[in-house]
Amino acid sequence: MFGVGDVIAFESVEAGKRKFHLCISFDGHYLFINSPKPRVYPGDFIVDCKELPFLTPTSSGKSVISCSLVMKKSEAELTQSRAKKLGSVSHNLLSDLIKFVQASPLLTEDEKDAIIEAAGDWA
């Protein structure tokens, strides 16, 4: 299984294609990492591509960690979806992510709880 802060590429059932994901727990919880879209959503944590040097930078120089869907994946699901670790984010980025989630007036309490519970010691 992967560790907190690892960025993993795997075939996503939710998205229907290979996507990048941020591992936020030792129990297999993940958030999508996306390219920015013209419309920003309340659960979008925007990060500089320099924070993800193992991914190809976007044209805007920004990436989005989507905090509106926490996915739980078993080790068997990850193996079946050809999961591969690409790198890890910094502890500072994880701390900033949790602060973003805690301060967000637009995420529901359930969304906040799911992320903070999964992130455990990072909260």
Structure description:
- With 123 residues, the chain is α+β, with helices and mostly antiparallel strands.
- It has one domain (6-122): SH3 type barrels (Roll), CATH 2.30.30.110.
- 24% of the residues lie in helices and 33% in strands.
- The protein contains three helices and six strands; from the N terminus they run E-E-E-E-E-H-E-H-H.
- The protein has a six-stranded antiparallel β-sheet with strand order 4-5-3-2-1-6.
- Strand 2 (17-23) and strand 3 (29-34) form a beta hairpin.
- The two termini are 21 Å apart.
- The model has no long low-confidence stretch (mean pLDDT 90).
Order of helices and strands: EEEEEHEHH
Strand pairing plus helix content: what structural class? alpha+beta
CATH architecture: Roll
Number of helices: 3
Please give the order of strands in the largest beta sheet: 4-5-3-2-1-6
Dominant shape: globular
The tally of structural domains comes to 1
Give the CATH level 1 class.
Mainly Beta
The Rg value, from CA coordinates, equals 13 Å
Give the proportion of residues in helices. 10-25%
How much of the sequence lies in strands comes to 25-35%
What is the makeup of the main sheet? 6 strands, antiparallel
Beta-strand segment tally:
6
Poorly predicted runs are none
**Average pLDDT:** 90
Distance between the termini: 21 Å
**CATH topology annotation:** SH3 type barrels
